[in-house]
Amino acid sequence: MILDPILPSLLTDGLLPPEAAYMARTDLHQTRMLGYTPDLLDSVTALLLGVINGRSAVRHEAGVTPPALDLMRRAGLAVEEETLVYRTPEEAWRLADGLADAGKRFFWPYPAPEGRFPNTAHLVPVETWRSLNAKASLADLVPPEHLAPRQILSHQALADFEPTAPVYLKSAGDLATGWGFAVRFCPDRESFLEARDWMAERHEYVPAVIVEEAMEVERCWCASLGIVDAGATCFGGAEQLFASPGHQSGSLIDPGWALPEEGRRLAERVGEAARRRGFRGLAGLDIGRTRDGRLIVFDPNFRFNSSTTQVLFHDSAAARSGLPVSLSFQVQATSPFDALVGRLHGPVAEGWFIPTRAFDAGKCPAREGRHIITGFVLAPDRQAAEWAGQQLAVRLLES
Question: DSSP assignment, residue 213?
Answer without folding.
Answer: E
